[in-house]
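ARCHIVE CARD
CATEGORY: sequence design from structure
SOURCE FIELD: tokenized fold
FIELD CONTENT:
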């Protein structure tokens, strides 16, 4: 298997809703495992997500989970998930869905470097960047 770099997002109890939202945005196959399935049956955290993985038709893998019991959820601004490419229709479609209920920092529009670019923080607090370049070739 080839090594891959996958974004892994941490949530404060709403990982299921967030991962289901990303499944609606990107399509693909969502796999969710709860704490109750493996180590915490009957606990208040039993239905929380221990590990989630979304494999998309476009080759993206997005992972996420609720913060484990006993750990504190400390969101930060040290990450963004960036979607790049030259398929304008596909990338605009992702933007249109991600930006619903989001805080848009940079509207999706032509930028000084020539690409179409936008940046938003979705309703789950995840920062997204979309960069649409001109097709090459």
């Amino acid at each position: 298997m080839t090594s891959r770099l996958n974004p892994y997002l941490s949530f404060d109890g709403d990982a299921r809703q967030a991962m289901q939202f990303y499944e609606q945005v990107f399509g693909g196959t969502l796999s969710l495992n709860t704490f109750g399935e493996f180590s915490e049956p009957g606990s208040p955290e039993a239905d929380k997500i221990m590990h989630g993985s979304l494999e998309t038709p476009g080759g993206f893998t997005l992972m996420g989970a609720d913060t484990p019991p006993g750990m504190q959820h400390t969101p930060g601004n040290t990450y963004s998930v960036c979607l790049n490419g030259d398929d304008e229709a596909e990338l605009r479609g992702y933007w249109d869905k991600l930006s619903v209920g989001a805080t848009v920092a940079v509207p999706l529009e032509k930028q000084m470097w020539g690409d179409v670019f936008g940046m938003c923080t979705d309703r789950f607090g995840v920062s997204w960047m979309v960069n649409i370049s001109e097709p090459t070739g």
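CARD ANNOTATION: The helical segments are 15-26, 35-38, 88-98. The chain has two domains: 8-66, 81-132.
SHELF: design records, drawer C
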